[in-house]
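Worked problem 6 (solution included).
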Amino acid sequence: MRLNARWFAALTMAASISSAHPARAADKPLTPQQQRMVDCNKQASGKTGDDRKSFMSSCLKGEMAATAAKPSTPQERMKTCNADATSKGLKGADRKSFLSTCLKSDATGAAAH
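Solution. The predicted structure is:
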């Protein structure tokens, strides 16, 4: 009888720990490296096999800005420049300056990075 009570207590404690853990993980902000992985993963949707592997490798190294086609609409440019700034971990004045340069460079077709 004592064994069953201990077993039940252990299972209850394990369940409470595992259910609390995801909440803590969701509260933590992503590191720049994790954010880059999220951004690259979104951009790689629809790619499979070796094409996806190659794309992810280049994207995670930060090489995608030079090899990717330039976005055509202002919204696409802003989205791309924002993703680049986030992946570089830029904040405040540095981020604002980067976005300004990136948006101007992308609009004229010059390399932003």
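Discussion: The first helix runs from residue 2 to 27.
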